[in-house]
Every structure is written in structure tokens, then in C-alpha cells.
Amino acid sequence: MKALVVADEVEERLWTSAVLNHPADLVIGAGDLPYDYLEFLSSALDVPCVFVPGNHDPDLSGYTRHGGLSMMDGFPAEWPGPAGGVNADGRVVDIGGLRVAGLGGSVRYNEGPNQWTQRQQARRARRLVRRARLRRRRDGRDVDILLTHAPPRHCGDREDPPHRGFDCLHRTIELLRPKWLLHGHIHPHGEPVPDRVVGETTVRNVVGHRIMEFV
């Protein structure tokens, strides 16, 4: 399984036919990218797309799907997300042979969408863990990727309020034991960004794009 993993920074050369030079089986988005960019990547490569929203993305909460129709409060409504994309925020999804658990958004710093206090995100994380455990009891499969927008606290985050990581992600990693935690939100500005290891999980900042292979 080879994935094109993107977050936060649009790379103009990928928003052309040049993306075909990066063949992949899946597009993974870690937030703060135009949804039509994700849609283009997925369509051009003819592969599925899974993503979580970032703090600069539109609010996707409240939308449901029934028979291929997008609904909001029981009425048909145009979904603002990427066509065909799978929003993994707060969910455990199987896609492209991988099991992905998602927690989008950042620490709350204003009244914008997709922002959570530490306590709110901790509640969301506990629900996610329960869903992952239920799936594991059904089929014995563990989570391969914990897909987040913000990183764990003190694990590649920053000290300014908008870019602090989430404390609860450490406990989530401990309970889910994913092979990878992939996140965006922290722009490296040209500096090298080393992977970090928490328990048995490799934490990787994927701002820009990465080509990753999953066994």
C-alpha cells in the first residue's frame, strides 16, 4: 500500500498532471487543505481519499449520507467536503486495506470551526477508542494509522496557543497502539522535521506531502 499523504500546504505542482508522477493507492489528508485540492488528487490518481479537517477547514459536522444523498437536519444539503472523500474525524474507517482512526481539529484559540478544548478533545478521543475496540472485537484488527490534524502535546508542537498539541493523544496512542500517527498543523518553514516515537507508534509531521508505504 502506497499513500500520498498531504496537509496544510498546497503544492502547486501536485495540482497538475504532474501528480501522476507520484502513483499511489490512497490519498490521506491531515487537514487545512482546500477540499477541491483533495478531490483533484484523488480523482487524478483514481484512488480513494480519507481525511480529517483542520482548524481552517469548513465545519463538516451534522452531515449524514443516505443512499448517496448528503443530508443536514433531515434535508438534502450539499456536502462541502471533497467529493468521494471519507471524513475520518471521530471515526474508525477501513479504506485501501488500512484501518484509520481520525481526530481532526486543533486546540481552541478563537471561535472558529474544528477547534476543541483539551477536555473536549479528550472526550472525543475516548469515544474513538471505544469505537476502535468494538471493531477489534468484531474482526481482530488493530488501527494502522491514527490520523490527526494537531500533534500530541510536547511531540513536535509549539508553545503559542494555536499550535499546542493535545494531551489526550498520548493516552490514545497507548490504548490503540497504531503503527503511525500522522499529523499536520505545525509548519516546519524549511526546517527538518524528525519523526518521533511514542511507545510503539511513529509520529510523523506530514505538512506539504509525503509518499509513504504501509506494509
TrEMBL record:
Signal peptide, first to last residue: none
InterPro entries per record: Calcineurin-like_PHP (IPR004843), Metallo-depent_PP-like (IPR029052)
Native source species: Amycolatopsis regifaucium
Protein name as annotated: Metallophosphoesterase
Pfam families: Metallophos (PF00149)
Gene Ontology terms, MF aspect: hydrolase activity
Residue intervals of the Calcineurin-like phosphoesterase domain: 23-188
Chain segments annotated as transmembrane: none
SUPFAM superfamilies: Metallo-dependent phosphatases (SSF56300)
